[in-house]
Amino acid sequence: MPSNHRYKIPKALRQVTLWVHPEGRVIGSLFLSYHTKNGPGMEDPCTVINDAAPFLVLQRTDPEELRFYNKRAIIRVEYQEAATPPQEGVKTLHCQLSLMDGSRIGGIVRHLLPPSHARLYDYLNIADEQFAKLYLEDDHVCLVNKAYVVCGSPFTAQPGVEPH
Predict the structure, then answer these.
(1) Which of 162, 44, 35, 54 is nearest to 98 (CA)?
(2) C-beta separation of 160 from 113 below 8 A
(3) How many alpha carbons lie under 13 Å from residue 33 in its C-beta half-sphere?
(4) pLDDT digits (tens, 9 = 90+) for 95-133
(5) What is the DSSP secondary structure assignment for residue 119, as one 8-state letter?
(6) Measured at the alpha carbon of residue 153, what is the angle toward residues 88 and 81, in degrees to the nearest 5?
(7) What's the CA gap between 131 and 40, in Å, rounded?
(8) Is the dihedral of CA 95, 101, 103, 105 positive or negative?
(9) The model's pTM
(10) Which of 98, 119, 111, 92 shows the shortest CA–CA distance to 161?
(11) φ, ψ for residue 12 (rounded to 5)?
């Protein structure tokens, strides 16, 4: 029987926590490529979640199984990411997002935006990104499905997640 190893693309596992409607909290790992579309360098969960494919693959550990989640059903994704130094031209926006379930998430958006379109409104309207990336406290990142956002507003207090 021929080996299928030559058809496999090596991937790294990255632990994430998903909040999925209606299932709730799901812990597992995403498969990340060792190369981005722009060249060498590890892919990150934000790239995977904002990819055009409607489903993503999640490796669960309890129970141990593969699941294919529809991104439209994912409310948010949280994971840890090492802090990186600020990059030139990247706009920093403090904000709070109110979600359909009544929860509010406060955090910081860091995104390369043109000076004429550097508002929170402009960031939330980036059409090719279904999930907004917020930096929270302690190197935590929250990717929020824009379809579940009721409203966003500028925010000046400490970033973090407020329970409903």
Answers:
(1) 162
(2) no
(3) 15
(4) 999 999 999 999 999 999 998 999 999 999 999 999 999
(5) S
(6) 50
(7) 24
(8) negative
(9) 0.87
(10) 98
(11) -105, 150
Q: Which residue has the tokens 């956002």?
A: 149
Distances (CA, A) of 21 to 63, 68, 76, 108, 119: 19, 14, 10, 25, 29
The Cα-based distances of 89 to 54, 84, 86, 114, 115 in angstroms read 31, 14, 9, 8, 9
How far does CA 124 lie from the centroid of its chain?
14
How many residues comprise the chain?
164
Q: Which domains does the chain have, with CATH numbers?
A: 11-78 (2.30.30), 80-162 (2.30.30)
Q: Which residue type sits at 71?
A: K
